[in-house]
Structure formats: structure tokens, C-alpha cells
Amino acid sequence: MTLLDTINSREALCALNDAQLRQLCDEIRQFLVLNVARTGGHLASNLGVVELSVALERVFDTSRDRLLFDVGHQSYVHKILTGRRDEFRTLRMFGGLAGFPKPSESVTDPFVAGHASSSVSTALGMARTRTLQHEDYHVVALMGDGAMTGGLAYEAMNDAGESSEQLIVILNDNGMSITPNVGGIAQHLALIRTRPGYYRIKKAYRAVTAKVPGGKCLYRLTHRLKEHWKRMLFGTTFFEEMGFEYYGPVDGHDLKRLEYMLRLVKDRRHPVLLHVITQKGKGYAPAEENPDVFHGIGHFDPEKGMEPRCGHLPTFSDTFSETIDALGAQEPRICAITAAMLRGTGLDAFAAHYPERCFDVGIAEGHAVSMAGGLAKQGMIPVVAIYSTFLQRAYDMLLQDVAMLGLHVVFAVDRAGLVGGDGETHHGVFDVNYLRSVPGMQVLCPASQAELGQMLRRAVLEMTGPVAVRYPRGCDGAFTGIAEQPCLREGSDITLVTYGTLVNEVLAAAKLLEARGISAEVLKLPSIKPLDVRTVAASMRKTGRLLVAEEAVCIGCVGKELLASLRARGVGGPVRLCNLGDRFIPHGAVPELYRLAGLDAKSLADAAWEVCQNEA
Ligand SMILES: Cc1ncc(C[n+]2csc(CCOP(=O)(O)OP(=O)(O)O)c2C)c(N)n1
Ligand SMILES: CC(=O)[C@@H](O)[C@H](O)COP(=O)(O)O
Ligand SMILES: [Mg+2]
């Protein structure tokens, strides 16, 4: 039995002495490594916040106080300490523990999270509610230095700093986003880190005034003067200029000091920012050495600290990486842009070869897209590589700063479709709707990596105006070729229409239908805007029945547009639209989620079979 096994309440955690707390932190680190090695997940960030999370749970009552994790990928220790330790076996699995905060799991998770830079906004909303309702709980936002590169954080701090609300922002500064943090704020933080005298002068002053008779009074009277000296000597931090009281920097692995500081800021009656310095990956050598690799990782060997190499098939992102790298050599006007996802998108190769043409803008998707507009207007060819889910942040910029001028910007929309373990905050299931709603946008949907390479080259070198190429997380399915024509399989009883890698399920469904005596024609659309309605209409005139399968929410889906266009052309007959409906899809392995949504081969075959029971 470990010490960790005995911590079943906040009272038990609060009763531990210093030595026991050190032991507990070691055990939590071992627990994290062993469990994430089995399930995969976000390891390095969690290893970095072990002491910080323990201190937070001791100083605050997270069942009553509101603790908001920014992004939320670093909430594992909080989950372990708030009654969910045993569920880590099921981390990120279908029906299991979520990898991000989830109010439905625990009262100690006050909000969902997954996208960066929103915690201070949410925290301020809660703090204002507390004031309006005359309550007295604490509100704490825990935000990383990477999340601090997102514009939303500044909007919130601008408002919060002036609000005079009691609000605590903890800045967990490890110098890292997924890769090393970028930009002016990263430099500002680095500067503060090298000037710890800033906090020391305050502490020394407090100690001296505490010793003299009437010291408390002296402290209060001379506080302003001291602040003035401090500013003269050390300058001010950005946070103070925004209206926050700044505390720090404090060593985030010194549990005693952390607790002391947390208790100090807990008593403040206005917005405060506590600057905590941590090491990403702390305590596990492979993660300390390669925090970016262990940021989000699949299952790995905890002894060797490596992911199994065998079975690592090339992914769509790998193909994007190779293709854009090769295009960079061919066309000097190509610029690549990432919003803090250099490795995930595969732009690292391009960045290594053409550093002057590759821009990591931080977690700033809106800025990335508007900047691409500027680049395109002045004659460059920007390729903006952003995950589908994060591009949601830049919808207005797509409209105003790219499409309205018809600018040639290529959007490499990675992680389109269901992504698996990250779950509802990360599935790329809205872009079919939002991209197609942008006037002038062309949307290509490769179904294999070979098609991705070909389409990307065409989008960059031959097409004009805004073009999105959307492709999924992971590898090819059975379909690996390049379709010269939309019709992949001829049939006479029903037309099955799809696009992207869902074609693999649809082709398998056609086979199942064949075994049941139904002849299905399979059409794969290379583009979902513009739509090739004529080909679908011709096929449906032949078969008389239609099923459209897509990995997208139902509002704004391709099936609905096809249906309307077919009806307008006078093409009728029984139709079934198979999609994700009007809901959020949970976390789990993609095949399980396909089954949940009725998009696996068997469910599709069943649906098509039902349609075929109707008269054409
Ligand atoms: C809007 C948005 N863009 C991109 C991401 C992908 N992302 C997740 S964590 C992360 C880095 C966050 O860095 P930081 O906040 O410093 O936390 P750390 O991992 O260092 O603990 C990024 C870029 C995201 N979650 N949300
Ligand atoms: C927390 C977060 O938003 C990212 O770390 C994300 O989980 C990365 O996803 P991939 O593993 O698909 O790159
Ligand atoms: Mg960080």
C-alpha cells in the first residue's frame, strides 16, 4: 500500500507532514508515468505541476472554491487527488476518465476545458457571480505560459485587472508551449525569471518591518513608497500594468514556499497574479529531456521512455510535412504558419529548412489567419496549418481578412473528423459546416495520403482564392490510392456518397451489402465545396436511392446540401443522411465512436439496407 493509496480526502492530504508530502509527490509522479505509459495522454505538463497541484488542493477547497485549468491537459494530479485515482486505468478511453476537466465527472471540475487561453475569462465570470450573489468562495485560474500567448488571455486580463474582483491567476511558467514558447511574452517572462530580487525585496521588507515596534503600521504607511522603489529598481511587470498585483517568481517544485505564497495571495482582495516557475516533465528523465515528445504521447515503455517504433505508420501529418517541405524548395513565395503546433502539424521540417519563411505565432489562430491575409495580399503564398478544432477560433478572420478579398491562402486543416482520446473539445467535426459557409472557400477532402500530396500541390501551385485541404489524424485506411473519378464502385440499388477517409467504412459497407444481395454504388467526393451534384444526380437517377455518410455534425452537412440540390433538379427517392447529429461526441477510440454514431461499416450497411426496403 502506498501513501497515495491512503489519500482519500482533502483532510487526509492536509494532515501530511513535510516528509510525507515529499513522498506523496514522488508517488504521484510514479503513478503518472506508469499509467500514461499504458493509456497514453498528456504526461510532461502533469509531471511539472505535481507540487503545485498538491499545494492548491491543500490551500483551497476545490469542491467549493473554483479552480479553472487553462487547456486542462495538466489536470491529472487534481483528478488523482479528488477521488478519481482508480479511474486512471480508463484514461481517454470510451466511457472512461476524460483527459480534460469535466464537470460531469466531479464537482471539483467547475468547467470544461480543452482550448487554450480562456481560463481568466471564465474565472472572472465566476468571480463576478460570486460578488453579485454575496458568496465568499475563491476563484483561481491556472494558466501556462503557452496559453498566455493567446489573445483571449489579454482581453480577460485587461478587464479583470480593472475589475477589483478578488481573483487569483497562477501563471505556470515552464518556458514551454508544446515546443519552446515564443514571442514577446516569453521574453518578458524569461526576464522576470532572471530577476527574482523582485519578490525577495518584498519579503525582506516585510521581515524587517515585522521586527520593529509598530511594524505593521509602518509597513502599511510605507507600502506605496516601497512599491515605488521596487519599480525604480526592477521595473514593472506587464501584469502590474494591467492592474494585477504581481507575486513571484516562486519555485514551483518547492512545496513549502508554494503553499506559503498561495496562502498569501488567497488573502488578497483584488486581482493577483502568482508567477510560478516549473520544469515540464519534472522527475522523469526522458520527459525532462524531451518535454515536447512527452507533451501528448501514445502508450510507451516506461523503462526505456520511448514509444514503440514498430507499427508507427506514416500519418497524414507526415505526408503534409514532406509535401510542404518539397514545395518550399520549388516555390520561394510559400510561407508556412503554425499556431503553436509545429510538431503536431508536421511543419517542423519546413521550419528547419526555411526558417525565414516559417512563422510560429503562438496560440493565436486568429492572428495566424489575419497575418496570412497580409502575406497573400502582398504576393506571398501562405499555407496555414491548423487543427480543425483550433481553426474555429479564427472564423471571423477567415471571412473578413481572407475570403472577402478572395486571397489565395491555403489552409491545411489537420485533425479533421473524430480525433479519439482528446474527445469533445478536440474533434474536428464543425469545419465542414463553417468552412463551407465562407463565400469563395474551396474545400478539398483527400481520402488517402497520396491524394493529400496531390491536392496540396494543386491547392498551392494551381488554385487561386482561399482553399482548405482537410485531412484526419492518423494513417491511411484500406483506400491508399488516388481516385481519378468519384465512382469507386458501380452498383444499381443504392448510391453511397462520402468524402475523406470515411470512404474506408463506406467501401466495407458496400461489401457487406453485396453479401446481402444489394448492389451499392460508391461515390467519393474529392471536394465538398464546390460540390459535384451532377455526378451524384446521375448515379441516383440510376439507383433511385441515396445514403450520404459523413464525419461531421448534421447542421450544415454536405448531405443536406446534396439533398436540396437533387430535389431542385427533380431527382427524388428514399434518402438517408448518416452523420454525427446535433451533439458533442465524447472521447474514445475512433472505431468505437464510429459505432456510437452509426458510421461504422456495419451500421452503414444496416442503414442502406433499410433504405433499400423502400420503393425507389
Ligand atoms: C486554441 C488552442 N490552440 C492550440 C492548442 C494546442 N495546445 C494544447 S496545450 C498547448 C501548449 C500549452 O502550453 P502551456 O499553456 O504553457 O502549458 P504546458 O503544456 O507548458 O503546461 C497547445 C499549443 C489548444 N489546446 N488550444
Ligand atoms: C492539449 C492539446 O490540445 C494538444 O496537446 C492536443 O491534445 C494534441 O493533439 P494531437 O495528439 O492530435 O497532436
Ligand atoms: Mg508552458
TrEMBL record:
<dbReference type="InterPro" id="IPR033248">
    <property type="entry name" value="Transketolase_C"/>
</dbReference>
<keyword id="KW-0786">Thiamine pyrophosphate</keyword>
<keyword id="KW-0784">Thiamine biosynthesis</keyword>
<dbReference type="Pfam" id="PF02779">
    <property type="entry name" value="Transket_pyr"/>
</dbReference>
<dbReference type="Pfam" id="PF13292">
    <property type="entry name" value="DXP_synthase_N"/>
</dbReference>
<dbReference type="GO" id="GO:0008661">
    <property type="term" value="F:1-deoxy-D-xylulose-5-phosphate synthase activity"/>
</dbReference>
<dbReference type="InterPro" id="IPR005477">
    <property type="entry name" value="Dxylulose-5-P_synthase"/>
</dbReference>
<feature type="binding site">
    <location>
        <position position="174"/>
    </location>
    <ligand>
        <name>thiamine diphosphate</name>
    </ligand>
</feature>
<keyword id="KW-0414">Isoprene biosynthesis</keyword>
<dbReference type="Pfam" id="PF02780">
    <property type="entry name" value="Transketolase_C"/>
</dbReference>
<comment type="pathway">
    <text>Metabolic intermediate biosynthesis; 1-deoxy-D-xylulose 5-phosphate biosynthesis; 1-deoxy-D-xylulose 5-phosphate from D-glyceraldehyde 3-phosphate and pyruvate: step 1/1.</text>
</comment>
<feature type="binding site">
    <location>
        <position position="145"/>
    </location>
    <ligand>
        <name>Mg(2+)</name>
    </ligand>
</feature>
<keyword id="KW-0479">Metal-binding</keyword>
<dbReference type="InterPro" id="IPR009014">
    <property type="entry name" value="Transketo_C/PFOR_II"/>
</dbReference>
<comment type="function">
    <text>Catalyzes the acyloin condensation reaction between C atoms 2 and 3 of pyruvate and glyceraldehyde 3-phosphate to yield 1-deoxy-D-xylulose-5-phosphate (DXP).</text>
</comment>
<dbReference type="InterPro" id="IPR029061">
    <property type="entry name" value="THDP-binding"/>
</dbReference>
<keyword id="KW-0460">Magnesium</keyword>
<feature type="binding site">
    <location>
        <position position="174"/>
    </location>
    <ligand>
        <name>Mg(2+)</name>
    </ligand>
</feature>
<feature type="binding site">
    <location>
        <position position="73"/>
    </location>
    <ligand>
        <name>thiamine diphosphate</name>
    </ligand>
</feature>
<feature type="binding site">
    <location>
        <begin position="146"/>
        <end position="147"/>
    </location>
    <ligand>
        <name>thiamine diphosphate</name>
    </ligand>
</feature>
<feature type="binding site">
    <location>
        <begin position="114"/>
        <end position="116"/>
    </location>
    <ligand>
        <name>thiamine diphosphate</name>
    </ligand>
</feature>
<comment type="subunit">
    <text>Homodimer.</text>
</comment>
<comment type="similarity">
    <text>Belongs to the transketolase family. DXPS subfamily.</text>
</comment>
<feature type="binding site">
    <location>
        <position position="365"/>
    </location>
    <ligand>
        <name>thiamine diphosphate</name>
    </ligand>
</feature>
<dbReference type="InterPro" id="IPR005475">
    <property type="entry name" value="Transketolase-like_Pyr-bd"/>
</dbReference>
<protein>
    <recommendedName>
        <fullName>1-deoxy-D-xylulose-5-phosphate synthase</fullName>
        <ecNumber>2.2.1.7</ecNumber>
    </recommendedName>
</protein>
<feature type="binding site">
    <location>
        <position position="284"/>
    </location>
    <ligand>
        <name>thiamine diphosphate</name>
    </ligand>
</feature>
<keyword id="KW-0808">Transferase</keyword>
<feature type="domain" description="Transketolase-like pyrimidine-binding">
    <location>
        <begin position="314"/>
        <end position="478"/>
    </location>
</feature>
